[in-house]
Amino acid sequence: MEYRISDSLANLKPSAIREIFKSLTDPTIISFSGGNPSPLSFPVEKMAAISADIFAENASAALQYGITEGYTPLREAVRARLKTRFGIDREGDTTIIVTGGTQGLELTCRTLCNPGDTVIAENPSFIGALNSFRATGCNVKGVTLREDGMDLSELEAILKSDDRVRMIYTIPTFQNPAGTTSTEANRRGVYALAKKYGVMILEDNPYGELRFAGKDVPTIKSMDTEGIVFYCSSFSKILSSGMRVGFLVGPDAVMQKIVVAKQCEDVHTNLFFQMLTYRFMTECDLDAHIRSIQDLYRGKCELMLRSLDEYMPKEVTYTRPEGGLFLWVTLPEKIDMNAFVKEALARKVAVVPGTAFNCDTAAPSPSVRLNYSMPSDENIVRGCKILGELAAEMLCR
Amino acid sequence: MEYRISDSLANLKPSAIREIFKSLTDPTIISFSGGNPSPLSFPVEKMAAISADIFAENASAALQYGITEGYTPLREAVRARLKTRFGIDREGDTTIIVTGGTQGLELTCRTLCNPGDTVIAENPSFIGALNSFRATGCNVKGVTLREDGMDLSELEAILKSDDRVRMIYTIPTFQNPAGTTSTEANRRGVYALAKKYGVMILEDNPYGELRFAGKDVPTIKSMDTEGIVFYCSSFSKILSSGMRVGFLVGPDAVMQKIVVAKQCEDVHTNLFFQMLTYRFMTECDLDAHIRSIQDLYRGKCELMLRSLDEYMPKEVTYTRPEGGLFLWVTLPEKIDMNAFVKEALARKVAVVPGTAFNCDTAAPSPSVRLNYSMPSDENIVRGCKILGELAAEMLCR
């Protein structure tokens, strides 16, 4: 039977990353391809204790339907943390709980955009978000990501020429996949352009808590005097990704509609884990826990960089992130990126091809993304050695 | 600032029921307005024990990202149960886990329908589903719900005249809000018409396990030789509604696209509770647990019916459900339904106005929905007495 699929979804493919993730059942493969937090980052014992408490004291509420906006104490705790930690405290904004950061991105897009509207994103960018925008029927246009952030003249050129732009999507801090952090000046530039052209900004900050070097740069949301910035993040990288608890902040008038859209998608987010997250935030030392993750990832990132320094031919370049989960490795012209990824997998090292992050899905890419949070220290060294030897070989062919 | 909201969401209002739920913070109100399972139906001790086990044995997996389709052992267990319990076992079908039944309904609609397409639903029907379809940009057309199911000639008239119908949405068993169950002949009629006119059926069966009287009627999905029926249900009414674990079955070609759409919405459903659900299904006696809920609801439904029999003027009629959570009470012409709901609330009894379930949101309704799963036995009797006295008074005015 021939089934007719809706226009927005007909041509959408599953995320290459999640497909790679599915294929990684072979335990002999060293995977640098995930976006997963380290299992060492889950505070299992404390979560288990809180969970037992909730079952003992509050099960009737935790297992029952909740309100769409989220568990009120958790919303308050998130709001308070965003204020002290990220300078986010605009009057007239509302914070809601969402089913992982991805839902926050998707809901913002479907509430602001009609099919055929344009979303601008950094090129490269997080494939999951780009697919969410495409599933809403939006066109995604990429702006080259420089070391200091989006290329502002490219950004303005699109804003000037395309009157269907509704939203600029950006991951300014520890960008996925590039690992770079945009400068304060660049952020102010993006904000000024959004204001000038009357478009919204969707600031995605899933890794913001994971800075292990350098200094914080103010969030774009903290600059938002006009109510044009939506800010999305989650507990996926600091407590548990599998629990799917994230949050979204934005101007109240739009957030009311986003709540209606969320009600239509899943009524509300798993309430038990909302309560668990709230109790962890207020009864445990979240900052100390986050510091331990920062220490862990600092070590892993430095080890990967040292290993790449040791094994990679000097023609291969890579970013040196100050936080987050990813390195972005760029191959010299002589090496075909797709062949590199394929041969690496044959040698049991999985990396994600840069094309997976392109706004223009047909465009080529000379880069691959490497994740350092998941692999063991031993595998980081072994994997980088294999990749380095492969690159050296391919350079000499 | 004036914000522009997308066309599909601009005019959508929050579900009246969930708004009523939010307003029910006054503990002196007797609420017949919820759609919540009884907290007595949550197997708290067993869930707590399994939860402790998962934290002890399998936390790294349970707190980590999972695959979009759902936890494989749970998908298998659901598939097996659907086969033995509901005769659902079509070759070429796929079962996935969704974030509550609502997500299954919403994903099916957005994957099959373009904005402007038509979804046919029973009138009255579940407001949450109707809103999900509207949020996708679909028009909802209602077909009168008779005692034996959808009015088949009305259904065919719409199918004949509207070439944008893509899907028939139906809750054939213990319908929400009406509490009625359609006959096997009616189900075969709906299936035959869908086949004849080349449209899909979305069968929603959240209450199917909650039969406390009468005999099972075959699911429409069990009649599906052509691969035109999607079947959606959840664990909300038998384990926990707050955990948001549901499932969806349909033809593989469409399910692949639905998985992509789900990936864009929330990546996957809370993995910890997927594991917990799987272990409950395989390590505990799910059937015995469900029987205990059936006993509980049989008692509550009978008590509500006896109380209505005693206190309601004979001009007021109501359905006598064989399962599910709801009674549908129809007032005589002399009583204005909206005034009745308002005065009942003033007397501290909350019921849901029938208009909330209308496919045509502007149409009037002579009915109200009563829930018997949540209120205590004492409150069932007291609430029915208050409603009965109010109806009697309003008849004499």
Question: Could you give the topology of this structure?
Answer:
2 copies of one chain form a homodimer.
Chain A: H1 7-10, H2 16-23, E1 30-31, H3 44-62, H4 72-86, E2 93-98, H5 100-112, E3 118-123, H6 127-135, E4 139-146, E5 149-150, H7 152-161, E6 165-170, H8 184-197, E7 200-204, E8 229-234, E9 246-251, H9 252-266, H10 271-283, H11 286-311, E10 317-318, E11 326-330, H12 337-346, E12 349-350, E13 352-353, E14 367-371, H13 377-396
Parallel strand pairs in A: 1-12, 3-4, 3-6, 6-7, 7-8
Antiparallel strand pairs in A: 2-9, 4-5, 8-9, 10-11, 11-14, 13-14
Helix pairs in contact in A: 3-10, 5-6, 5-9, 7-8, 11-13
Can you offer a commentary on this structure?
The structure is a homodimer of 397-residue chains. Chain A has 397 residues and is α/β, with parallel strands linked by helices. The first copy, chain A, has helices at residues 7-10, 16-23, 44-62, 72-86, 100-112, 127-135, 152-161, 184-197, 252-266, 271-283, 286-311, 337-346, 377-396; strands at residues 30-31, 93-98, 118-123, 139-146, 149-150, 165-170, 200-204, 229-234, 246-251, 317-318, 326-330, 349-350, 352-353, 367-371. In chain A, the strands form 3 sheets. Chain A has an 8-stranded mixed beta sheet with strand order 2-9-8-7-6-3-4-5, sandwiched between helices. In chain A, a hairpin with a 7-residue loop joins β10 and β11 (326-330). The first copy, chain A, is globular and about 65 Å long. At the A-B interface, α1, α2, α3, α5 and α6 of A face α1, α2, α3, α5 and α6 of B.
